[in-house]
Amino acid sequence: MFRFFLLAVLLLVHGEVRAETSAEKAGFPPRLIIYNAKGPANACGPGCDRWIAVEGQVDEGAAARVGRFLRDVKDSKRPIYFDSPGGSVRPSYVIARLLRSRKAVARIGRTIATGCAGGTQVDAACLTLKTAGGEVEAELTTRNAMCNSACGYLFLGATTREVAPDAVVAVHKSRLTLLARGPFSAQQIAEFKQRSMARADRERAAFVVSMGIARELDDLIKTVKFESLHVLTRTELYRFGIDTRPLPETAWTLEATSRPYIRKVAAAKQGDGASFRTMEWRLFCENKDRARLMFVRESDQAAGGLKTMMLTAGPDKSVAFGRYPARVGKYEVWSDTVAPDAMQAMLAASSLHMGEGTPDAEGKTKLATFDIDTLGLGTSWTRLLTSCPANTPRPAAASSNLNAPPAIPAISAAPATPAK
Rounded to two decimals, what is the model's pTM? Predict the structure, then answer.
């Protein structure tokens, strides 16, 4: 119809990355890269030390590269970890369908190549290492990992989708970028944009439903401006059918702060509804022979009465937190020391048992329990011990402070904003 052409490209980019800001400054490769990674034992789950890393902006050529790569990976059960601020929408749809045909297992996580020590993970040398075609020695973390905008669409293609409590999936509306050449009037361009966006909205709605996701997700996306981002809550992830695990949890990981500690975060589904309660464990070493465990969770304002919290590793080794948690804002915090024999039992166990006792009207205690895994605990504890002080005698005058807990933390799950 026209002698000239209109090129319309739907783009989704990370909400904090503007057109004038380079992808490298945001900590991402300028185009999507995919490579095989190998880490320590159980790095990507029990018995798993190899995974596929996908990171960077989704560009127009991404689908072809991902397709070629996956054809050469015979192990279809190998998990795929995404860390991306977004990019082009249509390649994301194509990649999603590739993942669906593969029955892929997809998770959100940052792959940190150990050979890039001292670099930025996106400098030229590191990108060369990652894209050379070999297996990259790496570590894996879910903390602050993201799959935003267009990345969320390709993530939906996996048949198994797992979003850790400290990772982010964020959504917003599309932006239509036009390159117009020719004597088009402002009205012609406006009408073309309107038709293009309407078609894109229909394609997105059909895609979401075809992936088995609730139409509510598409309804939500339409309400979020392109200049903003909406981080999907744990309740939304569950209700929309993106991640339907009742107790998603992170591995135990070492936090190298001024006072190092080991951290684990989980989100527990409450009752028969879709609401979740976030909780965190922090394990400190007070000396070579004694540890301290803190348990932090969001308060249940509706629940009354005193509660007793207990963590058990086996039938006889337990940490009893007592009946009087500290309350700070919307959090309640328990803290107790861990004796050497209890610590050894925790390290030897494949899972730990959390128990919550609540007295009823008749004075009896109603006990609710759930299990958490110990993935990463042994490795993290070994690393933490290197920074522990020696077990030296302390003056009697200072004995009243021996059991003083560290500063009460807020639960450090997903960041308030998905910005790096």
Answer: 0.86
